[in-house]
Amino acid sequence: MTRRLSAASLLPSLVAVALVAFPAVAGKFYLQLSSGIMIMAIFAMSLNLLVGCTGLVSLGHAAFFGVGAYALLLLSPQYAPASLWLTLPAAVGAAALAALAIGLLVLRSSGVYFIMATLAFAQMFFYYANGAKWLGGSDGAYIFAKPDAALFSVAPFKLADNTHFYYVALALMAATYGLLRLLLRAPFGRVLEGIRVNEQRMRSLGFATFRYKLVSFVIAGGLAGLAGYLDAAQFGFVNPELFGWRQSGTVLMMVILGGAGAVHGPILGAVALVLLQEVLADATRHWLLPMGLFIILAVLALPGGLAGLRPPRAMRRRPEARRV
Amino acid sequence: MSEPVLRVDRLSKNFSGLAAVSEVTLELALGEVHAVIGPNGAGKTTLIGLLSGDLQPSSGSVRYEGKEIAGLPPERIARLGVGHLYQRTNIFPSFTAFENCRLATQARLGSSMRFLRPALRYRELNEAAERALAEVGLAGRRGTPAAALSHGEQRQLELAMTLATAPRLLLLDEPLAGMGGEESQRMVALIAGLAADHAILLVEHDMDAVFSVAHRLTVLVNGRVLASDAPEAIRRSRAVQEAYLGGEAPA
Q1: What is the second-level CATH architecture of the domain A7-321?
Q2: Residue A204 and residue B75: Cβ atoms within 8 Å?
């Protein structure tokens, strides 16, 4: 039986082409806005590894975002650019290390205690950064030069160029997405899903679940650090709010709004939330009110999030093509 | 019979002063079905929990293949080759029957810290999962979500998962509970067949089934061993009849 190409099966390719072609038509403002969205999408996807895959609801994920951002600050010379190739891995490593240390402690709890413990650790980072002079204190600090991509004095791209930055963010978002897809299909991802559904059963089958949760926490922390690093690089500025509970709450909202059940859900959530914020903040000073209402309605109407929205029947693929 | 696979020595468990299991001693060899019977609340499920690691013993010793396992976490005990069928069905409801079994076989990999090759490309695991499903008679239901299976099928599925981890000792907690007549017969035949190359500790209320498959019976009352003997001797025992079988000889 031959299958005609349906509109829905073409959708991912169309989206990819549109994303690559976007800088050709977009101005500076929209390029920066979309780069920012893609950074948040990386952040949200990293959190979803915990929330949607492992069943660990963290309300302190901003801690690792902040570590990634502050790592760039600390590794940058005062007025000269730092090397991208050194600082990016270092920032991701620092965030992963922080996640390892915190994970060893918080993963001993579960449910609401886990939520509280993660929040508490992120708040500790927040208050520390708030009071630490060497980190710029409550005012934050500027990073005057964007990281330099030069390798052996040849620069393949310049982060100071909005278009280049856009493509770097796009490539890293795609890489994060691909990495998560790979992980979730592999035995490791299957163990995480099993832990989410029935952790006690996983243990009685012989899986040392703590170790898998810890590795999941460390990967999620490292990817959040990547997002934080990019955020600091884009805006050239860090402040303690990057560690704050608002930041953790916003990214959790992106995950829930977009749909924790799909790898691409958090991307949709990041797009929707950032755009909505732009539109509403333009329209009214009291934009948080309609924003809150929208989120409540969206959660009520779409239990699977935006990713759970199905195309009209005629556009659907065969049900067998869906992921189990 | 050969060396005992399992040797339980004066095992006790207190729940805040209440002795749920007290000074239980028993042995189990390969090829043997050892049934533990007793009235509700006698401590049968607690005993199984102590052996599987889901509960921590208060005192006493559990030796499995010569190794002390009392107090080890459940995942360690499972990896040593102890399979557990829970009294209350304990599966992954949203996964298909096949994925339930496949995940169980994945426990054999040693480590699942494998990040790149898709899980479904581990052919030997898929085959082991299919075999386990076929063994319990669920091959035709492989693609059905576990939550959509009938109660009896879910029990069969859980047994398949347990078998998929390739255990040598099986702890079966009321495998027949809630099953219809035909499903029951099938399960009893399955257990009898498994006895050939497993050591089986069976907790079950269905006395017909117990007396048809068990080589040895331990009667537990109020957490203590009242009697432990061959089925015929237990059937004739006056003390057991008074305490548990209610005076009427089981058919």
Answers
A1: Orthogonal Bundle (1.10)
A2: yes
